[in-house]
Hints:
With about 140 residues, this protein is mainly α. It has one domain: DksA, coiled-coil domain (Four Helix Bundle (Hemerythrin (Met), subunit A)). The chain has helices at about 15-20, 30-55, 65-100, 115-120, 130-140. The longest helix is centred in the middle third of the chain and has 37 residues, at about 65-100. The chain is flat, with a radius of gyration of 20 Å.
Amino acid sequence: xxxxxxxxxxxxxxxxxxxxxxxxxxxxxxxxxxxxxxxxxxxxxxxxxxxxxxxxxxxxxxxxxxxxxxxxxxxxxxxxxxxxxxxxxxxxxxxxxxxxxxxxxxxxxxxxxxxxxxxxxxxxxxxxxxxxxxxxxxxxxxxx
Length: 144
């Protein structure tokens, strides 16, 4: 979907997003706001991943087993955090693809608006609050 937002156009503020009338929901200007938000988050995560890679390359061998165990535990924790961020990167890329195809901001289950407030809190959301609660309840019942 082609966006009608000029590169030099000023993006709305969070306050303007929240105060916008329902008729503005997922307008080109709002989509540009969320694209910028998602791209900034993606760039931040990629910077963190680069920093982790550099940090892990600087591995310092230590003869003390306690120090070595602490260092290895720190690296394990750091890698676990990066794995969670890798999953978030995938969700961010999917959200940007939804902006491109025109489905961003609409609940995948009901087709209803997800809502600006929810998208500001979780820009990668694919369900409205109600649909998300139903989805999580089904997962609990299945034991996922």
